[in-house]
Every structure is written in C-alpha cells, then in structure tokens.
Amino acid sequence: MGLCRLKTLLDLGSSANYKDKAGLTPLYVCVTTDVMAVTSQRCVDMLLYDHATLGIMDSAGWTELHQVQSFVESVAGMLRSRGQRDLETQISVSVSVSQ
Asked: CA 83 → CA 45, 79, 88, 90, 94, distances in Å?
C-alpha cells in the first residue's frame, strides 16, 4: 500500500487495526513487505502514531516483531558470511604477498 493511500485512509477514519482476509493488519504487512524501505518505515511510524496494535499473529503464530527479528538475523548472517569471505581473501592476499 502506498504511503499517500494509507495516510488518506487513516485521515478518513479507517482503523489502523483493520484486518484483511488473512487476519493481518496494515502494520504487519508494512514490516513484512520491505523492512529497510523508507516508505515501509514511514508507514510503520504512521500506523503506530495512529495506535496500531502490536502482536497480531499470522497463521504460523508469528507477530510483527518475529518478522523483523527474522529479517535482522538474516541480514546479520549475510554480513557475517561476507565478513568471513573478506577476511579469508585478505589473509590469502597477505600470505601471497609475503612469499
């Protein structure tokens, strides 16, 4: 959902806690769409300001916070993996230069 459309709906009195057919709220959708996007962050801010409820569970029992934590852990794993490869490359280059 676009930021302007969300703002318009909230301004017209729509509930920040409206649930779709799957039982998910706009806040849940915002944090699962693209956590790092500025638009997503602004949507989250707007919904929390409009008293969106935290803790809505999906069919697997996951809340918004579970989704964000999973994303953060995934990014941290990628960074660790990349860091390990970079370190191995640096060591390999150091060894070959010193020989």
From this structure: 32, 6, 9, 10, 16
Taking only the tens place, the pLDDT of each residue in 17-34 is 999 998 889 998 888 887
Give pTM, 2 decimals. 0.67
Tally of domains in the chain? 1
- Cα separation, 43 vs 31, in Å, equals 9
Q: For the segment 57-67, what is each residue's pLDDT rounded down to a tens digit?
A: 988 999 999 98
User: Measured over all CA atoms, what is the biggest interatomic distance in the chain, rounded to whole angstroms?
Assistant: 72
Q: Domain holding 92: CATH number?
A: 1.25.40.20
